[in-house]
From TrEMBL:
Its main location: endoplasmic reticulum. It comes from Hemibagrus guttatus. Pathway: Protein modification; protein glycosylation. One of its GO terms (cellular component) is oligosaccharyltransferase complex. This is Ig-like domain-containing protein. Keywords: Endoplasmic reticulum, Membrane, Transmembrane, Transmembrane helix. PANTHER family: CMRF35-LIKE MOLECULE 8 (PTHR11860:SF87), POLYMERIC-IMMUNOGLOBULIN RECEPTOR (PTHR11860). It holds the Pfam family DAD.
């Protein structure tokens, strides 16, 4: 059970009012330690945690309000902000210390840790990986990590979540850390820059959120609305373009028989959302019978130019060497002449 800093302070103040002088000194030192540790934890959460601005207050309450005698709260590592399309699944790994191997692990939702709602626990068969639950949890003791999988996410699932490890006991605070999950609508591509040779084909996979499953999908040349190829049925076929929509979460666009003029920015769209893709078409390489690329041969003029540069470089090196040698000889002669004058 978590004991907040406010209840601890209340208890210490009561002891302060009724305690002996020696006990008061101990309480003073302990109270100072608690306050300094709480301040350190708050600063740590601000610097290391990634709280969105609109959730700053909840982050503050989570860091300060849940501070206990156990010290720093964030001992399970998996903080940050995750973004996922609606209708997709997400798997979050939560790492813990070896000393917590046998302890119960859990996953809960809520802005403030002390009041978060439990969604999955390792001691609950109903949320085991083999179950059909929308949220499941699996522990890997050998790697000291447990993973949480949430399926068929909705926009309403956006919010703060906590990886937690039970410690047990009234004076032992559970180890936990938070992360923010944003469930959004839209469309994206894994790689927005692709290239291929002239005459070849190139394929782009655009992934979209659940909202766009029934929307039309399109592929356009950026800046030219008239160039758009659209499909409502799931498939569009032409001599140079193939669009295939699985009507689930992915539309595949294949540009065939590429020409140099196909280079440039293109748009993959679904509904009101779209994403940019840059296609680079390079000249076709000349190949021999065995598939070895033939590099353009050097012309006679280029060979002569290279020989001329090499000869000039050699001349400069020889001249520099001669100049250094001459300087050394003159310097030596002057030194010897001065030495002879001194002897006379």
């Amino acid at each position: 059970m978590a004991i907040s800093v406010f209840s601890v302070l209340s208890h210490l103040l009561e002891e302060y009012a009724t305690g002996t002088p020696n006990k008061v000194k101990v309480i003073d030192a302990y109270l100072l330690y608690m306050l300094l540790t709480g301040a350190f934890q708050f600063l740590y959460c601000l610097l290391v945690g990634t709280f969105p601005f609109n959730s700053f207050l909840s982050g503050f309450l989570s860091c300060v309000g849940s501070f206990t005698l156990a010290g720093v709260l964030c001992t399970v590592s998996k903080e940050g902000e995750w973004t996922v399309f609606e209708g997709k699944s997400i798997t979050v790994p939560c790492h813990y210390k070896s000393e917590d191997t046998l302890n119960v692990k859990y996953w809960c939702q809520g802005s403030v840790y002390d009041f978060c709602s439990s969604l999955a626990r390792t001691d609950n068969p109903g949320t085991a990986p083999s179950s059909q639950a929308r949220v499941t949890i699996a522990d890997d003791p050998t790697q000291h990590v447990f993973t949480v999988t949430m399926r068929e996410l909705k926009e309403k699932d956006s919010g703060w979540y906590w990886c937690g490890v039970e410690k047990g006991g009234i004076w032992s605070k559970d180890s936990a850390t938070s992360l923010y999950i944003s469930v959004i609508q839209g469309i994206s591509v894994v790689n927005n820059e692709i290239s291929a040779e002239e005459g070849d084909s190139v394929t782009v996979q655009c992934q979209y959120s659940e909202k766009h499953r029934k929307d039309e999908k399109r592929w356009c040349r950026s800046g030219d609305v008239r160039s758009c190829s659209v499909t409502n049925s799931g498939t569009f076929i032409s001599k140079s373009l193939l669009i295939s929509d699985d009507r689930k979460d992915t539309v595949t666009v294949t540009m065939r028989q590429l020409e140099m003029r196909d280079s440039g920015w293109h748009l993959c769209g679904a509904g009101e959302h779209q994403v940019s893709v840059y296609v680079l078409v390079t000249p076709k390489s000349t190949t021999a019978a065995f598939g070895v690329k033939i590099q353009p041969s050097l012309t006679e003029a280029s060979v002569k130019a290279q020989d001329s540069k090499s000869y000039l470089l050699q001349c400069l090196l020889i001249a520099c060497g001669a100049l250094i040698l001459l300087t050394a000889i003159i310097g030596t002669r002057r030194i010897m002449r001065g030495y002879k004058l001194i002897n006379f």
